[in-house]
């Protein structure tokens, strides 16, 4: 929602830019923390969704941990103030250099994706004179029923250790002097809106957990990943994700032993709604079959529509919605046909210079931007908490 004050704040700023509502971010983080605390659940924020420093500072101030997928994300998290004992390092291809640096920083845990990676971490930890805490990322073969490009928990995906490889992992861990098994880790996909999928995950985790316990392993941590989706269609009506319902499912269906911790790695649900991409109409092209709005933002600023045909709500901030409704294909200036934010989008009649908001762009927006076509990158604009 954009008040008159916010629009004045946008003023004559050069577009395009990312706008972050830090008040909404705060309220979202508070809602998540409250819901997780009821059950003693631990949330690690997935930095990959948005590593903007202002966003990270807010997340850190709530006491969340950090889920990182590169050596640079690990360093960034610690630089912002996340305590190393709340930092986990995941990813299917960690380099030796990244592993060594994370060992030096004494992070909480490596989420390991193969037997070979266990061997590499064991060897590097031995050289560093350390014992590395690890969790096994296991592919649970649970369908997340989300876009196929963001599904990760099926055997056809490259992520995680398949269940038939578990005996080899257990055998290796039994003899590995520089590894300490903290727990097991799962992540089945992103933008999951059907919560019953998480019930299926719990049932699979319970089985796999039992398999380890029967073999004498104590699992201190059950990490069930992230993936909670948000409502891209109705960003104002549902501006805060259903954290209550989400955590409730895990509380109900996940078996926990006394002292066993449950960890989550949420990204999108924490930051998606607080961000919008603000752009201006450069040209209105009226064709025979279609009308086009050519914006000054493109797939270089927000690539989700081009990459996953993702829907983002588009609003003309300069016109009243009812002012002469018109359908437009809203496109960017990049020399690619997929550089399109939405087809047949119903907007008020729009003109050159109008301000356009592309909503729910706080997750996987700014972080996935690129310099393709040698595009400029601009500083974001923030609505501070005290400004409302
Ligand atoms: N944990 C792991 C191991 C992950 O791979 C991911 C996301 C997360 C946690 C956080 O998931 P979230 O809560 O944000 O769903 N670029 C895509 C999304 C890629 C998600 C990658 N993994 C998009 O724009 O939709």
Main pleated-sheet profile? 8 strands, mixed
User: What's the overall average pLDDT, rounded?
Assistant: 94
In CATH terms, what is the architecture of the largest domain? Alpha-Beta Barrel
User: Level of helix content?
Assistant: 25-40%
State the fourth-level CATH superfamily of the largest domain. Alanine racemase
Question: Kindly, what is the distance between the CA atoms of the first and last residues, rounded to a whole number of angstroms?
Answer: 12 Å
- CATH class descriptor name of the largest domain: Alpha Beta
Share in β-strands = 15-25%
Bound molecules: ligand LLP
The number of helical segments is 11
Catalogue the unreliable spans.
Answer: none
How many structural domains are formed by the residues? 2
Question: CATH topology of the largest domain, anyone?
Answer: TIM Barrel
Structural class estimated from helices and strands: alpha/beta
Question: Radius of gyration, rounded?
Answer: 22 Å
Shape: elongated
């Amino acid at each position: 929602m954009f008040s008159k004050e916010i629009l004045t704040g946008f003023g004559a700023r050069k577009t395009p830019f990312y706008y972050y509502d830090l008040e909404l971010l705060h309220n979202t983080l508070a809602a998540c923390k409250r819901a997780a605390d009821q059950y003693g659940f631990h949330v690690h924020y997935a930095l990959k969704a948005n590593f903007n420093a202002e966003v990270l500072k807010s997340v850190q101030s709530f006491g969340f941990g950090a889920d990182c997928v590169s050596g640079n994300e690990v360093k960034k998290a610690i630089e912002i103030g996340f305590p190393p004992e709340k930092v986990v390092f995941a990813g299917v291809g960690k380099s030796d250099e990244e592993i060594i640096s994370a060992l030096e920083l004494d992070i909480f845990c490596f989420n390991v994706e193969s037997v070979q990676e266990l061997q590499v971490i064991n060897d590097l930890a031995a050289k560093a004179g350390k014992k590395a805490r690890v969790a096994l990322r296991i592919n649970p073969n649970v369908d997340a029923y989300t876009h196929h490009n963001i599904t990760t928990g099926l055997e056809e995906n490259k992520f995680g250790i398949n269940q038939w490889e578990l005996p080899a992992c257990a055998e290796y861990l039994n003899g590995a002097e520089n590894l300490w098994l903290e727990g097991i880790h799962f992540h089945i996909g992103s933008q999951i809106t059907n919560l019953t999928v998480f019930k299926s995950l719990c049932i699979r985790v319970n089985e796999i957990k039992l398999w380890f316990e029967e073999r004498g392993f104590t699992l201190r941590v059950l990490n069930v990943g992230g993936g909670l989706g948000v409502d891209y269609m109705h960003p104002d009506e549902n501006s805060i994700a259903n954290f209550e319902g989400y955590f409730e499912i895990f509380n109900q269906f996940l078996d926990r032993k006394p002292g066993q911790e449950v960890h989550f790695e949420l990204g999108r649900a924490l930051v998606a709604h607080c961000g919008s991409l603000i752009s201006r109409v450069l040209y209105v092209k009226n064709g025979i079959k279609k009308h086009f709005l050519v914006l000054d933002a493109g797939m270089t600023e927000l690539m989700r529509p081009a990459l996953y045909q993702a829907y983002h709500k588009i609003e003309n901030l300069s016109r009243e919605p009812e002012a002469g409704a018109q359908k437009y294909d809203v496109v960017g200036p990049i020399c690619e046909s997929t550089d399109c934010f939405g087809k047949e989008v119903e907007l008020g009649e729009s003109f050159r210079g109008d301000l356009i908001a592309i909503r729910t762009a706080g997750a996987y927006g700014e972080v996935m931007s690129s310099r393709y076509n040698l595009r400029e990158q601009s500083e974001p604009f923030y609505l501070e908490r005290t400004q409302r």
